[in-house]
Structure formats: structure tokens, C-alpha cells
Amino acid sequence: MSGGDINALVDLWRASFIKNGLADEDVPFANKDDLYRVIDSTSSSDVPWESFSLSYNGELPKEDPPEWMKQEFDVWFRKYKDFMSGEWAWKQANKISVDPTTHGSSFVPVILGSDKTTVSVATGQNEYYPVYISIGNIHNNVRRAHRNAVALLGFLAIPKTEKKYANDIKFRKFHRQLFHTSLARILQDLKPGMLVPEALLACIVQGWCPRCIAWPNNLDGRGGRRSEDHTEVLANFLSPVVLWDQYGIVSDIVPFTHDFPRANIHEILAPDLLHQVIKGTFKDHLVTWVEDYLHLTYSKKRADEISDDIDRRIAAVPSFPGLRRFPQGRHVPPDIICTFQAFLDFCYLVRHDTHSDSTIQKVQDAVKDFHHSRTIFETLGVRPTGFSLPQQHSLQHYPWLIRMFGSPNSLCLSITESRHITAVKEAWRRSSRFEALGQMLLINQRLDKLAVSRVDFTARGMLSGSILDYVKNYHNDAMEATRALDTRAEHHNTEDNNNGDSGPVPGPLTPGYVKPSLNQPCLVELLRRFLYSQAHMNDHDAPSAFNIPLHQCPMFNSRVVATHSAVAYFYAPSDCSGIGGMRRETIRATPLWRKHAAHYNCAFVERDPSIPGIRGLDVWFSHILDEPDELTGLWKVQPDTNDDGSPSLEIIHLDCIFRSAHLMPVFGDYGHRFIPSDIDFTNSLDKFPTFYINKYIDHHAFGLSQG
């Protein structure tokens, strides 16, 4: 909220005090400056910002040195005084345990994340390089739930120079060294906690793997794991040129881990799902390769027509919160679909909240299947040079990384990317845009104080209920005190009771009234058969409700209430959820959604709790096969119908609904034909005869499909 908005809100607050006969000076805050003063005086989360400056210390040219060599670069940071099921944490704990001087200490692994972000493009290309910090002792669900477990640690300097110096070797070396020196300076308070004299002497050349010594032109070939001992031996006996060309080692840069003996950079680089998997392999590689395939195979006009049809197919997929779409159809060869299937299986497997030897084996199998299927792009001429790509090569290391650091779903840079919004982008918008960094630091400090104060107030019971509850309780207490002295207490009490019932109360509806509004003429019959099923739920010898005459079913003519949505709660720790892993989902059945069209969600109905996974659920569609489709890995279903072709209808108990389901049309039914332009997400469920159950809609649905 801007300062002007705060002042306006305070004025409204003061006006309400005056209107109710209260002194306006009793308003808690006089203006925005008064509010800021109270926040700044809060002792909770009082971590001040500090800064230091770095500059180039190499040899200067005799004539006209570039500006970047003469500039000082400011770095801002904060000091903090103050994943654990993985094997890496246990190894470090074992090392600490053998040192008698560390007995009684706690192992606190530090997790760092940094990623440059741009806050404005058209108005000056304003960029910032925030660094975020967390610790491994925090549970994954807390970090992923954005409960202030990831904190802004500092802002790194971004050196800029003229275009003619942009590719200068000295400038590029200085740029890299500035990054490492800044981190080393920010983290220097951690050094006393590290006692074993180990060091890493070099960085890695771009294009090489930081974990193994596979060659960059054959990353999927054999290559042993990198180690600091191996790097140290090479650095002592080989020249910088040989280290660069033959081993991918940058020997003239001192990494920030140099003074941190427990920071073996080859081991502690955590997996990065966002840049390696989602953006790297999926968006930059697979999606681009499909587009390249279309333009290699067809004329430009035909390729554009196919691309438009793919867009229409995506638009025809029924809506769903957090929709993820699966490319399937007849515009690409089956092996391309298999490539996407294997890759998506890998994505969802590594995002499991917990892992076992079984799931890790499935991850390895998915990588193997992906490597096998992706060769279609080489065969078709899309990737004639092969697949020696660092992002895809990183997939091979995920099984080992999961064993070392646990589930990667709490180490993804998407968590720090989301912190960009509050820590950088929104803070920049609140600033005056002139020398904004100092203002952004103060804004972040105040936000931290408010967050910690809220936790403190909640623990003290100061934030129980809402402000309306507080006002009601305050008003009720005042009324009780007044009634004790007021001789008209009975009169007031009568008025209070009448006020609670004032105005017309819309009554429930009868089934006969609801029937035409729902366009279900057989509603009363279905309701009576439902009551029969409920009455004979535990009688296994009783005939089915649909196999008896209607007159044997209970009569029902009471009032009912029609609602157009229901809320499902289920345990889904791998998806965005609360700290306890519970996820909330709204299932809608409304004839008019957002003034546009009808919105009817599909849902899983639990028929047999003893059967695991999707086999124990029903979506009122019949499985076409007993196993998922071999090509896509998705279950194929078709709507249930009666003998006369009419839809199979039944009323079920609300408790049977497990969660929403997402169905996608089988576009392959159209063959190579384009789908009609009048089909969209509002009517596709009525236009197609068969559907896929989309297991990729979220991680919980994917888990159901695994059984």
C-alpha cells in the first residue's frame, strides 16, 4: 500500500471516530509516518542491512581504462546468527560427530538461491540480483507453503560496461569473481562453524557438467564423478588452458566456497527443477523441437495451420485450476508423444513429497524411456547433432540427488522466483523509482517485522477470530453492562431478538420446483431410488435400486436446497497445500459461470475404498480398456449410457465424491482432420465420444494413476 493510500485510510478511520462521538486523537496512527515509526521500532526480526563495496584490483591499462575498472560496486546484505533425511546430511553429521569439540552442536545446512530479475524493461532495464537464504532444518512443507522460511539475504551488484567491453576477457573474469567474492563476504560469519580444512580451487566452464567429467559434446557418455581432490591435483600440475579445454575447469577464479571447508561445490549444488526440467528441457527443448519438426515436415502454410489446430485443441480442453496440458493427437509421430509421456512422468515422479527405493527406480526408468524415445527427433532431422545438452544431462543425476538431499520439490528455484514478487518487484513499485535500492531494503525490513509481529500476536491469542468478532464481543460486553442498570432490559432484549429475524427468509425448494430448473425430469424418481440405496446400504442381499419397481422406493416430498458447488479436502503434500499437506478444491456444477457458459466439473467417486488408485474410483464413464493407453499412458473412458442411448444418471451421496477429475477429449478421433472452430472448453465434453483421464493435471492425480 502506498503512503498516500495509508494517509487516506487513516483519515477514514479518524472520520469514523468523529462520527461515533469518539476523540479522533485516539486513532492508533496519525499518518503514514507514524505507522512506519511503530513498525521500525518493533524489536522482532530486527536484522539491519549492511553493505560493502568491491572494485577491480587488477592492472589498469596505461591509457583510457574503462569505467567498470574504476567503479565501486555496492553489495547489500543482512547477517543471520542463527533437508535432513538425505544421505548428504547424515554424512556431514557423521563428520561432525568424530570431532569432540563439536559435541552437543546442531548441524544447520544453509540453502542459498540467487537469480537475476528485471523490474522494468521499457523504462531503463532496471535489474536486481537478489540472494535468498533458507536452512535445511526447516521441513519442506513449510518452505513450499511460503511461511517466511525463505528470507531475502542480500542484493548482489550487477556490473555494466560499454558494448565494446562486454566480451572483454578481463571484464568477464571480473564479473565472475565479483559474484564469488560477494557471496564469500556475505557468508563470512559462517566460517567459524566450519573446522575441517578442505577447499575447492576452481569453477566449471559453461557447457560442462559440474557433477561429473563427461565431455560437453557427449554428456551422456561415461564420466566419473567430480571431486575436490581430483580438481586439486589437476590444478597443481596442469596449465589453465589445459584445465579449461580438457576438464572444463576455470582455474583463475576463486569460488566463494574456497574459505568454506565443508562446502564441496560438486556435492552441494542442489537440483533445479525450474531451469533444468521445466524451462530447460520442456519449454526450450521439447516444445521448440515439435515446432521445428512441423516446419521441417510441412510447408510453412501447412505448418502454421497445424499450429493453429493445436492451439484450438488446447483451447478445447475443459478448464481446471492449475491446468497442465498433454500434447496428444495425430499431427506428430507416436514416438514424439512417447517422449512427452516419459518426460512428464519424470517431472511428476521427482516432485513426490516423499521418495522410496521404488519411486527412485521409477525415476531412473522414466529417464531411460525418455532417452530412448527422444531419438525420434534425431531420426527426423530436428536434432542431427544429438542430445548433449546440460539441462537434459542433469536428469541423470536426479536419483543420486534425491538420495543426497531428499525430495527436490522444496529446493526448486521457483520458490525463490516467487519471492521476487514481494522482495523485489512489489518493493520496487512502492519506491520512488529514483535510487530505489535503499527504499526497497527498508520496505523488506518492514515487511519482515510485520510478518514476525503477526506470528507473535497470533501466539498470544491477539488475532483470534476476525475484527467483526472482536467488535461483536466488545458490543455484547457493553450491552450486558448496560442491561444491568437499564430498567428497559426486557424491551431491549426483545428488540435484539427481533433484529436477528428481520427481513424475509427465502425457504428451501421442493423437488418438483428444482426438477425443471435442473432440466432433469426424472429427478424425483432418482431421488427415491437414492433413498432406497441409503436405507439398504448394509443389506448385501437387497436388490439394486434400479432393479425394483419405483413404488417400492420411499416417498419424498420434503424441501431441498440446491447448490452449485461443493468443496473437497484431501491430502496432497506434493501439490501446493498447507503445512499439513491438505488441499482444498471447489467442484462446480453451475448453469452459468461468470456470465459466460455452463461450468460442470467431473469428479472421482469412490466406489471401492479397498482398491488402490484410480481403479477404485469412478467418473461415471466406463474404461475402454483394462489398462492405460499404451501410447499416452492415460486411461481412456467413454460416457455411460442406457440401452436406449440416454445418459446413465444416478443421485449419489456427497460423501462419495473424492475430488475433481479432469477429462480431455481424444482428439485422435478426428484423425488428421482439424477440429471444428465451434468446439471450445465449454462444450468439448458434449462433442467427443471418448476422453482421457488427465493424470498430469496435478501431482495428486498423478499419484492416483500410479495405483
Automatic annotation (TrEMBL):
The superkingdom of the source organism is Eukaryota
UniProt-annotated stretches for the region Disordered: 491-511
Q: What is this protein called?
A: Uncharacterized protein
